[in-house]
Write a structure and sequence with these properties.
- By secondary structure, the protein is an alpha/beta fold.
- Helices cover about 50% and strands about 20% of the residues.
- The protein contains 13 helices and twelve strands.
- An eight-stranded mixed beta sheet has the order 5-2-1-6-7-8-11-12, sandwiched between helices. Strands 4-3-10-9 form a four-stranded mixed beta sheet.
- A hairpin with a 2-residue loop joins strand 9 and strand 10.
- The N and C termini lie far apart (about 50 Å).
C-alpha cells in the first residue's frame, strides 16, 4: 500500500499502539503528545510495546504540541486523546491542516465524539473508530498491550467518508490491526459505552477496582442495575444486542481482575474525566426518550463533583 502521512494526536495506549503498527507498516507518522518525557524517550530510545506482542518502533516525527505540526498536510489525523480533551485539541489544529484534505478519525471512548469533530470540520471529513484493543502506559516510551479482540470498527458520518473509511480499514488491517468498515458505527460505539459505564462510574465514585466492586455485594448489585439501565437506553435507540448480552458483560467484568478503570485514575490525579461522553451522555439520551436512568444520572453528577474537587486540590 502506498505510504501515507498520518498524524496521531495522543500517544497513550491507543495512540501509541496505533503509531507503532503504522510506522512498522511503512507509513510516515507524526506523533503528538504533550508529555515531554514520553516524547523525549521515544526520540532517544524508540517506542516499546510489550504484552500481547513485542514491538520497538522509532517514529521520526515527534511533537509535544499540536501547533508544532505547522503547515504539514497529513492524509489522516487520528485523535486518540480522551474525549474530554476534544475541544482543546480541535482548537489547536492549525489552518494548514484544516484547509487540507485530511480525514479526521475519532479513536476515542464515549458517545458522540465524532459529532463534536464534525461540527467543526464537516461530516464528510470525519470517521468514527471503535477500538477493541487496550493497554497501559507503564512509563515514558513504554506501553503494555493488554488485549486485542479484533476487529476494530470504522464508520462514516457523511457519504464523502465512505471511500476514506474503506481505504483506512484496509490500511489498518495491513498494519496488523484488523479493522472492518461499517455503516452501523453507532451500534458499536454504544456497545463499548455500555461495557465501560457499568464499572467505570462505580470505580470513579468509590475508588474500587473492578475486582473489589464485584466482590462487594452492594456494588456488585449496582453494576447490574447500571448495566440493565444502559441496555434499556440503547434499546430505545434501536440498539438491541440480544438476550445473552447482559450475561456476556457480567462475565467480561468478572475476568477483569483488579483493573482500575481510567475514570478512577483521572479522579485520583486531578484530571478531567470522560464522564460527559459516557455516564452523563447515557443519562441525557435516556431523558430524551423518557427511559428511566436514575443510576446514571446520580453517578454522573457525583463524578462531576468529585472531578471538580480533585482538580481543585491538585491546583493548590
Amino acid at each position: 500500500m502506498k505510504e501515507k502521512t498520518i498524524a496521531i494526536i495522543g500517544a497513550g495506549p491507543v495512540g501509541g499502539i496505533l503509531a507503532a503498527h503504522l510506522h512498522l507498516a511503512g507509513h510516515r507518522i507524526l506523533l503528538v503528545d504533550s508529555w515531554q518525557a514520553h516524547i523525549g524517550h521515544i526520540q532517544a530510545n524508540g517506542l516499546h510495546i510489550s504484552g500481547r506482542e513485542e514491538i520497538l518502533a522509532r517514529p521520526e516525527h515527534l511533537y509535544t504540541s499540536i501547533e508544532s505540526l505547522g503547515d504539514v498536510k497529513p492524509d489522516f489525523v487520528f485523535i486518540c486523546t480522551k474525549a474530554c480533551d476534544l475541544d482543546d485539541v480541535l482548537g489547536k489544529i492549525g489552518e494548514p491542516i484544516r484547509q487540507s484534505r485530511a480525514v479526521f478519525i475519532s479513536f476515542q471512548n464515549g458517545i458522540d465524539t465524532e459529532q463534536v469533530i464534525a461540527e467543526r470540520l464537516g461530516p464528510d471529513r470525519v470517521l468514527r473508530g471503535v477500538v477493541t484493543y487496550a493497554g497501559v502506559l507503564l512509563g515514558p516510551g513504554e506501553i503494555r498491550e493488554s488485549f486485542f479482540h479484533p476487529p476494530n470498527y470504522l464508520g462514516w458520518l457523511g457519504p464523502g467518508g465512505v471511500d476514506a473509511g474503506r481505504e483506512l480499514a484496509g490500511l489498518l488491517s495491513d498494519a496488523g490491526l484488523g479493522t472492518e468498515v461499517t455503516g452501523e458505527i453507532g451500534r458499536h460505539a454504544w456497545r463499548k459505552a455500555i461495557l465501560n459505564t457499568c464499572t467505570m462510574a462505580i470505580a470513579a465514585a468509590t475508588g474500587m477496582n473492578m475486582q473489589e466492586m464485584q466482590e462487594f455485594p452492594p456494588t456488585a448489585q449496582l453494576v447490574e442495575l447500571l448495566l440493565r439501565e444502559s441496555i434499556a437506553v440503547a434499546a430505545a435507540y434501536g440498539y438491541d444486542y440480544g438476550p445473552g448480552f447482559f450475561d456476556f458483560v457480567m462475565e467480561f467484568n468478572k475476568r477483569a481482575g483488579p483493573h482500575r478503570p481510567s475514570m478512577l485514575v483521572d479522579i485520583e490525579n486531578g484530571r478531567k474525566t470522560e464522564n460527559a461522553f459516557i455516564v452523563r451522555r447515557i443519562a441525557d439520551y435516556a431523558e430524551r426518550k423518557g427511559v428511566p436512568a436514575p443510576y446514571h444520572r446520580t453517578l454522573g453528577i457525583l463524578i462531576e463533583a468529585l472531578e471538580k474537587r480533585s482538580r481543585e486540590r491538585h491546583q493548590i
